[in-house]
Write a structure and sequence with these properties.
Bound molecules: zinc ion
CATH class of the largest domain: Alpha Beta
Number of domains: 2
Structural class: alpha/beta
Number of helices: 14
Shape: globular
CATH topology of the largest domain: Rossmann fold
Helix content: 25-40%
CATH superfamily of the largest domain: Vaccinia Virus protein VP39
Radius of gyration: 22 Å
Length: about 425
């Protein structure tokens, strides 16, 4: 069993001295900070990637946080529109919002973390004002080029006041994969109260804690994700600020997420049975008990041992090994498991801006997937297990030539 410290820390959200560390993934670079060859000479920024559970408000959070401006800046590497899977996902979400949520075209729509405008562009036309908030300047400017109204700032109560003075109240505030990126969620809840119409709705989609625990997907834990949400914890958080959840919906994106729908406590919207059902499931799974998290941490350590053992065995047999997909998740796996160029010759990736760079911390060269099958590596370790089906389907030729993939979720194996 994982050793636990006797000194409980202060919870960032409820201020109680009830935060208990349960998993330490060690020193970690910024997951998205891919390096140029010149940067390999410099000392890399690292921090301790450690996760804790608050026994009072049930929120799971990083113990040490990296400042947001180190993460979401003008060189932010992730453009939402690059993935066709995500494009379809946002089209479905926009469609559902249009039919179920919108009730007054004179009211505003605000998207927090609007990235390159992939969702925002699908919501314009349904409201008088559609406003994107996106602190990363390069992705925000990609959205502006499409004629979208985007503000390059962090969403906080001072911006919320400015928005409420300039625009009509919001019938919708939406954010996908963004709530977990906001350090001060009390400030977020306050800001929601300022901009939302009395009958307005907020929708957030974030990686779901129970999925992470079931799949042993510890690679979802990295610098940008300050929090890992259960419905139980979100309900406690929002209730503290006069807000409530009225519907929840499990979705498959990012390896298993939860879409939550919320409104003001006083709203006429009735609470869907999905909320009650999910709370019961979480209760049954022990989401409010520290012991569940210690069991998870123990399994994560076993998962690392079995992966390292498998890769070393293949290497000892004289096989050539590479990585596939230079993802943030990959950075966590490689660093936590100590996998570097002794094991993987290259990491293949189809994002042009990452090619020619090196993986953070482990310094494995990143090369284009164009030559993947012709290079004929024996084994390719998939570093973005949530896209495994897509990758395996795309690289049919590699498998036809006798190449094999390795995955580690839920256990290390050759596929
Ligand atoms: Zn707390």
């Amino acid at each position: 069993m994982n050793e636990i410290s006797l000194n409980k820390k202060i919870c960032r959200l409820c201020d109680a001295p009830s935060l208990q560390s349960f998993l330490d993934l060690g020193r970690m670079p910024i997951a998205n900070a891919f390096l140029t060859s010149e940067q390999l000479k410099d000392t890399e920024f690292t921090f301790n990637l450690e996760v804790g559970f608050c026994e009072k408000c049930f929120i799971v959070q990083l113990i040490d946080m990296v400042e947001p401006n180190k993460l979401f800046h003008e060189n932010y590497a992730y453009f939402s529109s690059i993935s066709s899977v995500m494009d379809n996902h946002f089209a479905d979400l926009a469609n559902e919002i249009n039919t179920e949520i919108f009730y007054d075209p004179t009211l505003s729509v605000i998207e927090i973390g609007s990235n390159d405008g992939i969702l925002l562009s699908k919501l314009t036309g349904y409201a008088l004002n559609t406003i994107g908030i996106e602190p990363s300047a390069n992705v925000a400017s990609a959205a502006r080029k499409q004629g979208l109204n985007v503000i390059s700032r962090f969403f906080d109560s001072s911006l919320a006041v400015e928005l409420s003075e300039k625009y009509n109240a919001a019938q919708l505030v939406v954010g996908t994969n963004v709530l977990c990126h906001i350090p001060d969620l009390n400030e977020l809840a306050k800001s929601l109260n300022i901009v939302l119409d009395d009958e307005g709705v907020f929708i957030f989609e974030d990686p779901y804690l129970l999925e992470i625990m079931h799949k042993l997907a510890y690679d979802q834990i990295y610098d940008e994700h300050y929090y890992y949400f259960s419905v139980t914890a979100l309900q406690v958080l929002f209730a503290r600020h006069g807000l409530r959840l009225f519907k929840v919906e499990p979705i498959s994106v990012h390896g298993g997420s939860m879409r939550i729908y919320g409104c003001k406590l006083s709203s006429k919207r009735s609470t869907d049975e999905s909320v009650v059902r999910q709370l019961a499931i979480e209760d049954e799974q022990g989401i409010s008990n520290l012991s569940s998290y210690l069991v998870f941490a123990d399994k994560v350590q076993q998962s690392r041992s079995s992966l390292v053992e498998l890769l070393h065995k293949l290497k000892d047999e004289g096989k050539s090994l590479v990585g596939y997909a230079a993802s943030s998740k990959g950075t966590v796996i490689l660093n936590y498991c100590g996998i570097n160029t002794d094991i993987l010759d290259y990491v293949y990736d189809n994002t042009p801006s990452k090619q020619g760079l090196y993986t953070p911390g482990t310094h494995i060269p990143i090369v284009s997937t164009d030559n993947f099958s012709s290079d004929k590596p024996d084994y390719a370790f998939i570093l973005a297990w949530n896209h495994m089906e897509e990758i395996v389907a795309k690289e049919e030729e590699f498998r036809n030539q006798g190449g094999k993939f390795v995955t580690h979720i839920p256990e290390a194996r050759v596929v």
